[in-house]
Design a protein that fits this description.
271 residues, 7 strands, 7-stranded parallel β-sheet, alpha/beta
Length: 271
């Protein structure tokens, strides 16, 4: 597989922002970060714990001097400290990338009705949906001149996807939160949008039972008959986070080679 090449330029020159949720080199958040850096952005990265820091630091260092901040989205004190460090270093920021989600593996298999627990529901909602509301509120306080926020979602929020289960419900809450945040923050010149990427080879996809089948179906049923490409997802994020995306807010933008718009796959191959 050839290495992804991200177009360089100066669309983000002079802009600073926080990227939350990079897990490894295959993370969508990392692809977005690389594209933003290629366009001149200054980046800060949050990490949950020491294990993730060790995994992510070499990636961050490849972009230059690392600015990494510990942030546990389930802990208010940790989030307070994270955004205080951002304020102390930069004063203001221009964008936020939120790529954080979680659900227990036992709940991402089989029956949604039978396997969803009270604690699993609460945890999925807190980490996958409320964390964006909380981070967005804090980030908005550092955006006196306006800005842009992007979160990551998936089609399982709109339609039933086997084994996506409680994560699909959490992503639906995330998308609704995006619209309400866009309404609240719009008068301050802050845009809030979601990217709905197709199946990609990430840790998140690996945690879903039948993830490989989702990849195959996404490719075969899509309008373009191809896998979702990181260049497309990162490029869409660049559009939404840069001044190119002015006037676009409250949107869930699908980047999945057209898969989301297909009701019935082509039957030509069966004829």
């Amino acid at each position: 597989m050839s290495e992804t090449v991200f177009p360089a330029g100066d669309l983000m020159k002079g802009k600073r922002g926080l990227v939350m949720g990079v897990a490894n080199k295959n993370s969508i958040a990392w692809g977005i970060a690389q594209q933003l850096a290629a366009q001149g952005a200054e980046l800060a990265f949050s990490y949950q714990d020491d294990a993730l820091e060790r995994r992510v630091r070499p990636l961050v260092e490849s972009l230059g001097e690392p600015f990494m901040i510990k942030a546990d989205v389930t802990d208010d004190a940790s989030m307070d400290a994270c955004f205080k460090q951002l304020e102390d270093k930069w004063g203001t920021i221009d964008f936020l990338v939120h790529a954080i989600a979680f659900a227990g593996k036992d709940e991402l298999v089989g029956s949604f009705t039978e396997n969803t627990t009270r604690e699993g529901w609460r945890r999925a909602m807190e980490i996958s949906a409320f964390s964006f509301v909380d981070a967005g509120k804090r980030a908005s306080h550092l955006m006196p001149n306006g800005g842009s926020m992007v979160t990551l979602t998936y089609l399982g929020s709109e339609r039933v996807v086997p084994s996506y289960n409680v994560m699909g419900v959490a992503k639906a809450a995330l998308e609704a939160s995006t619209r309400y945040m866009a309404r609240d923050l719009g008068p301050s010149g802050i845009r809030v949008n979601a990217l709905s990427a197709g199946p990609m080879r990430t840790l998140a996809m690996a945690g879903i039972s039948g993830g490989k089948a989702l990849m195959k179906t996404g490719r075969e049923w899509s309008m373009m008959k191809e896998d979702t490409r990181m260049e497309g997802v990162a490029g869409a994020a660049l559009y939404l986070l840069s001044d190119l995306g002015h006037s676009c807010t409250g949107e869930t933008l699908h980047v999945d080679a057209g898969f989301h718009a297909v009701a019935v796959p082509s039957m030509e191959d069966d004829e």
